Model the fold of this input.
Amino acid sequence: MCSWLSYLLTRAAQRLGYKLATAWHQPCKRESGAQNLLMSLWPISDEFTVQIMSDFYESAHQSGNAPEALAKVQRDWLVKLRKEQGLASAVNLAGPFIVSSQGRP
Done:
């Protein structure tokens, strides 16, 4: 149940905002034993979400440290998008992601 709910709430986090999505995620986070919760603070393009998340999951899998992986991926995407589309677009597309951690990363 929580995996399906987490999927739906991840989408809700992009649409409804951080506070509401965080409140909804907490019970599933506790029940599943998840140590990290990744969400977006504002809606962004699905195209960029897929690309950034793909890089994030690969980096998190390799390092075993989700917060560190997100910082690296966001930094890389901010630099890339700034060169291609300008600072405002880079911040809008790569900046909204955060990791809420519980316990060790």
